[in-house]
Amino acid sequence: MKTKITEMFGIEHPIIQGGMHFVGFAELAAAVSNAGGLGLITGLTQRTPELLANEIARCRAMTDKPFGVNLTFLPTVSSPDYPGYIRAIIDGGVKAVETAGNNPQKWMPMLHEAGIKVIHKCTSVRHALKAESIGCDAVSVDGFECGGHPGEDDVPNFILLPRAAESLKIPFVASGGMADGRSLVAALALGAEGMNMGTRFIATKEAPVHENVKLAIVAATELDTRLVMRPLRNTERVLRNAATDRLLAKEAALGANLKFEDIIDEVAGVYPRIMQKGEMEAGVWSCGMVAGLIHDVPSVKELIDRIMREADTIILQRLAGMAKS
Ligand SMILES: Cc1cc2nc3c(=O)[nH]c(=O)nc-3n(C[C@H](O)[C@H](O)[C@H](O)COP(=O)(O)O)c2cc1C
Questions:
Q1: What digits encode the pLDDT tens for the residues 10-63?
Q2: Inside any domain, residue 321
């Protein structure tokens, strides 16, 4: 399938694997890229720029296809060494960067001078237009359904994607709630040039996470996610578990007085315990409503091939048949 996104990133299929903390290691990024999509290493999961450089080298040894790095700009006071991370990306010869979080404007000249294409993840048309105005090459439009941080506007993709199509000149991919060939065709119909998936890629053979995480996603339905940290205006969609219930009870009890320190046990430093040790109640972890559409743990190649087969069948048979009659 040829779209503006496949052309931009030099990939075979218009499918991107979104950055995911403690999931987006070289193994997953390489598997997605080898299967014809765009795999992304999650930059900040690597504690230092040197470790990121090492992860990029590991990924390069596993694939000769294009892959990228996600760089999440956190709203924290003590900022990670972003110049160091960007240097590691440039020196590692990476040609695609997914930025997320705060505005990446400051880093755009460095990235563009190195010939890197930048796709910024946004949860609103307003932020997507801003990304376009600062020179981002594409955006990933993340609807309210998404796992992780859906922003504070709560606009689902059935509205957000056509709104993005009305407003943007740069190409965009649909993100949030994407799982299969139906998602891809729907995303294209709504104006996107491809799709980005997070949660779906965790439930694959190559995702380097504990088996318990994959089983939890397969077991979950679309009713099993919750929004946490809303009072802090840092809303995150997570899978419901004991830690989620504890956190929500604190939010209800403290109301507007809630501070980050009150919920630190549920959120800080929990990802390695969950993703690597499989301690599923250790804290809250991002998961999309799309869990309701995930019923198996295929290899990444099986998943991507299946998506493309399904998409072709929908377009060439179901939709073409309807259009003819
Ligand atoms: C476990 C997990 C961790 C994530 N970590 C990050 C992250 O570190 N940076 C980021 O930009 N997005 C992160 N995301 C968001 C994904 O990149 C993607 O935008 C989102 O999962 C799309 O929604 P979906 O899960 O419905 O496919 C994370 C998502 C999940 C499920």
A1: 999 999 999 999 999 999 999 999 999 999 999 999 999 999 999 999 999 999
A2: no
Residue 18 CA to ligand 1 center (angstroms) comes to: 6
Q: Whole domain around residue 160: which residue ranges? A: 4-204
For the chain, give the number of residues. 325
Is there a single domain that holds both residue 269 and residue 131? no
Residue nearest to atom 15 of ligand 1 (CA): 148
Task: Kindly report which listed range (74-78, 137-141, 200-204) carries the lowest average pLDDT score.
Answer: 74-78
Catalogue the E-assigned strands of the chain: 15-17, 39-42, 67-73, 96-101, 117-122, 138-142, 172-175, 195-197, 225-228, 236-239
Entry pTM: 0.98
Report the number of distinct structural domains present in the chain: 2
Distance 6 CA to ligand 1 centre (A): 21
The two three-digit tokens of residue 199, written as one number: 């949660």
Looking at the fold, whether 277 and 144 belong to one and the same domain comes out as no
Q: pLDDT tens, 273-307?
A: 999 999 999 999 999 999 999 999 999 999 999 99
Pocket of ligand 1 (CB under 6 A): 18-21, 23, 42, 70, 72, 100, 121, 142, 145-148, 175-178, 196-200, 285-288, 290
**What is the rounded distance in angstroms from the CA atom of residue 93 to the CA atom of residue 114?**
9
Quick one: 167 and 246 in the same domain?
no
Looking at the structure, do residues 176 and 80 belong to the same domain, yes or no? yes
